[in-house]
Amino acid sequence: MVAYSFQPRFAPLIVEGLKTQTIRADRLRHARVGERLQLFTGMRTAQCRKIIPDPVCYLVEPIDMTFSKGRITRVVVGGLPVRKLDYFAGFDGFQDIEDMSLFWTLQHGISSGIWSGVLIEWTPPRGDRGAA
User: If we measure between CA atoms, which residue out of 110, 114, 90 comes closest to residue 102?
Assistant: First the structure.
């Protein structure tokens, strides 16, 4: 089982099932399809807490994001270009691609060039919303 830490701003979106993916830099071991994930905020701190019960990973694909002047201008997942960038950004917990671009520029210092990593998607949590 692989654990991922998220900034507190993303926790409510994960709980609501609105954020169902994460983009991460390459590392020794990422989640594998079919494996459960542990999603936390505040890992390695006294404020560490699990966000939701362990969801199942259903996609792990390489991702390339092209930046130009602080804006994400192209996203390629598994070799295929993403056509609707605002829609993609929404699944990652952002209002739109502009919001996502600002986050990446401020948090990761990327303003131009290509960033490569891994896209990991999971099943959203099941709740009793919409139940009769």
Answer: 110
Three-state DSSP class for 38?
strand
Going residue by residue through the chain (132 aa), what tens digit of pLDDT does each one get? 899 999 999 999 999 999 999 999 988 899 999 999 999 998 888 889 999 999 999 999 999 999 999 999 999 999 999 999 999 999 999 999 999 999 999 998 888 899 999 999 998 766 544 444
φ/ψ of residue 3, rounded to 5: -110, 145
If you ran DSSP here, which 8-state letter would residue 126 be given? P
Residue in this structure with the two tokens 């804006």, named with its chain if needed = 71
Candidates 6, 4, 51, 58; CA nearest to 27 is 4
* 3-state SS assignment for residue 6: strand
- Pair of tokens at residue 81: 């270009």
